[in-house]
Write a structure and sequence with these properties.
By secondary structure, the chain is mainly alpha-helical. It has eight helices and no strands.
């Protein structure tokens, strides 16, 4: 469980580097932040650190504070997070399906989004199964 969370934190913090140094947003969240900075009259790029050091160092400090808070909150809760792994699959699977359906619907309040979720979910499942079958056939042939 620590590996994906570490990768997520590293990716989120690392996304600020091209935004603040070059003014290039690496993902959609940073593009929104780029738009917000421009609206407030700040041009991201090499001069951001010179013209607005408070924004740059405030962001760096907030990442440090956020990581310390995650550490303080998660160390005592490791046992609780490990208990999630003991939830039976027959209970966990319907909950995952339920929350993905709710999440896809609330994005635009459109039932069509649920339909797309189900179509692409089934399509992804079938593609995964077909790849596994091809992989087995490949090893049987050679």
């Amino acid at each position: 469980m620590a590996g994906p969370e570490s990768a997520n934190n590293a990716g989120a913090g690392g996304a600020f580097v091209p935004l603040f140094t070059l003014g290039i947003p690496p993902n959609s969240v940073m593009a929104i932040l780029l738009g917000a900075l421009i609206i407030y009259g700040m041009q991201p790029g090499p001069l951001l650190m010179v013209e607005h050091p408070d924004i740059f160092w405030g962001t760096v400090a907030s990442m440090y504070i956020g990581n310390v808070m995650l550490l303080i909150l998660n160390l005592p809760l490791i046992g609780l997070w490990a208990q999630v792994l003991k939830v039976p699959y027959r209970i966990l699977f319907p909950l995952i399906i339920f929350f993905t359906i709710i999440g896809s619907y609330t994005l635009r309040n459109s039932p069509t989004d649920i339909l797309f979720l189900l179509i692409f979910g089934v399509l992804g499942y079938l593609m995964k199964k077909s790849i596994m079958m091809l992989h087995r056939c490949y090893w049987l042939l050679f």
